[in-house]
Amino acid sequence: MNLGSPDSTKVSDVRKYLLEFLMDERVIDYPLVPRTLLVKGIIVPFRAGKSAAAYRSIWTDQGSPLIHTSRLLQADLEKATGIPTEICMRYRNPSPEAAFQELLRKQPDLEQVIAIPLYPHYAMSSYETAVEHVKGIHQSAQYPFELRFVPPYYDHPAYVKALSESIKPYLEKEYDHILFSYHGVPKRHIRKGDITGKHCLCNTDCCSTPSPAHAFCYRHQCLKTTELITRELNIPKEKFSYSFQSRLGSGWLEPFTDSRLKAMPGEGIRKLLIICPAFVSDCLETLEEIAEEGKETYMEAGGEAFTMIPCLNTQPLWVSALSQFVKENVRN
Q1: Euclidean distance between CA atoms 316 and 253, whole angstroms
Q2: CB-based burial of residue 233 (10 Å sphere; 0-12 exposed, 13-18 middle, 19+ buried)?
Q3: Strand 240-245 to strand 146-149: parallel, antiparallel, or no bridges (unpaired)?
Q4: Count of domains forming the chain
Q5: Quick check: 9 and 55 in contact, CB under 8 A?
Q6: CB atoms within 10 A of CB 300
Q7: Which of 75, 227, 240, 294 has the most CB atoms within 10 Å of its CB?
Q8: Residue 81 domain flag
Q9: What is the CATH number of the domain that holds 183?
Q10: Is the whole-model pTM more than 0.90?
């Protein structure tokens, strides 16, 4: 299960995708009327054309990079596990209904489906909305099989190992700094997810102070991934940092990736590595926002070398990690 992509780079298809995505109450968590006015009256009319151009800059002969990579991963995971495997997207195609029907076609006596949200960290606007959406479809259609979800794996040793190994070769070359750029979310999402009602973002040490809230805290989980990866790779504290990209409006998690990219050359960071651990498959947010726009921002500010480390995509250790997640969640 992944986020999704427009069916094509036509403005009409991008508009459909943006409407479905941004009207999700877990993405823009406003009441229906103001959300509708904002999305349909302001955001989509002004963004559809620009977003279509951005998608055209990364589109390939195989179509959407996200969808194509997901299909390759599907084939690799099915081969590794020997279990029928399908993909679905939260928005647009292929839909969860299509995936369920194809699994039932392959295996009519299907008893259990294990869903793997391709989001390492828990966030209301990614992991939660995907899970709740598919749960609703499963329940309303009264499918005959049990549905089980792989929990967030931001600190799972197999994920940490796969991501660490993907970074390791880039550390062998000269670099000044490595930036861990995570997708941003509004601070209000963090507060809404705080099951204690009194921990998240209440002080500067909240993410390092143990709390039940951390099971649903995106910021804590991003910082934990950064901690585990840098410890695994023995990266000195002064040579790494984290930031949050893709902000839409004010009140989002900081520091902002674009602001840091502008400032880093002036701080003596001239050779930068950047990785986006919130994404396991390269997509618009990595290929266009970071590898194209981010690089331009950094180089114009005086940077000398900018290297984006690819997402895990279909790397063998990642396929192995997914296989382990499946084994851990199979009903005995």
Answers
A1: 32
A2: middle
A3: unpaired
A4: 1
A5: yes
A6: 11
A7: 294
A8: no
A9: 3.40.50.1400
A10: yes
